[in-house]
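The authors assume throughout that readers already know how a fold can be written as discrete tokens. For illustration, here is how one protein appears when written out as sequence plus structure tokens.
>
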Amino acid sequence: MRVLFIHQNIPGQFRHVIAALCADPANSVWAIGDVNAAERARLQFPRLNVVSYTPPPAARDGHPWLVEVDAQLRRGQVVARALQQLRDKGVALDVIVAHPGWGEAMFVKDVFPATPLLTYFEFFYAATGADVGFDPEFPTGPQSAQRLRVRNMPHLAALSACDAGFTPTRWQQSMLPREYRGRVAVAHEGVDTDAIRPDPAARFEWNGRVFEAGQCIVTYVARNLEPYRGIHVFLRALPALLAAVPDAQVIVVGGDDVGYGMAAPHPQGWRAALAEELEGAGTPLDMGRIHFTGRLPYADYLKVLQVSAAHVYLTYPFVLSWSMLEAMAAGALVIGSATAPVREVIVDGENGRLVDFFDRDALVAAIADGLRDPARARPLREAARATIVQRYDRKRCVAATLKLIRALAAPK
């Protein structure tokens, strides 16, 4: 097959599918991506034909709600020119796979109208029932719904133009407009369950300390420590948890940048803001037992999951993090928030624990129970891994995505 992938951070969510296609010499695999990611992709996939582009400058005027849309249109035009160059060179394609989130898929069909377009839909914004307005601590303004309608404009264009789509979870599919859902399949990127697995001999070394599997270790992971992933709930719960479980140690992995939502009221991020808040409340974080590692190399991150006795995953109703699935694959006891799409994966008392996102007392109790009675938690940990192997194993997920691609590439 001749397949082209489009993603500003190539390979992005297409990493495993690109690897599978490149492994077969019969395939011709192309990619278009931001110049900052293109070189990494070339090194990672020597057989991948990568075309890079430089992101266009942002607009300096216009309606403030249209700043993001304007950037998407400009990026879409740059990608369209790259596609035109491929077409003019005689490059023929069987399928184009694109992520529309940054506007790159906007004009694909105008350059290759006869080539099937498979689009990856990560998240469709909604004024109710999802992330916006979920947390009363951060209320939305009266014009929030209007702004979100504008933010969805490129996604609606992508839904209209694509021949088919796919999205990682059923909940993310349910967020799409009803009239388009039948064209969008559910196909997760998958987890490497061969590499990510329990290790009773796992050791994680950090800042002169050694943490080992079997110890009383609580873990929390997010790309950035921010309210969207419940860092405010988690850190506020820690003084009570450490008092309830005197031998517990806590490892917190994640950066201090802003990924989703509003910036912190502290220049050093939400971690510093919350530490300052707890200090002022007379319940300071015990830095002798709480270990903030920042972001870690992937191998060290996996060790953190493997030494975990209780892994906390909190999230707004939003895109499901890979880290939760990887923690389950590593055999961790995951205490998750009872929010979608977490409930799509974890059943309380069967393969993990679920608590209300805002209920700190319930969170502390669930973590403490898991730490105090590891034998009772063992079946949950085993069931957690079984869930990932059965439903989210990388080989199974890649096969499902390749099936979508081949179906579009087949002669009609």
Notes: The chain has 15 helices and 15 strands.
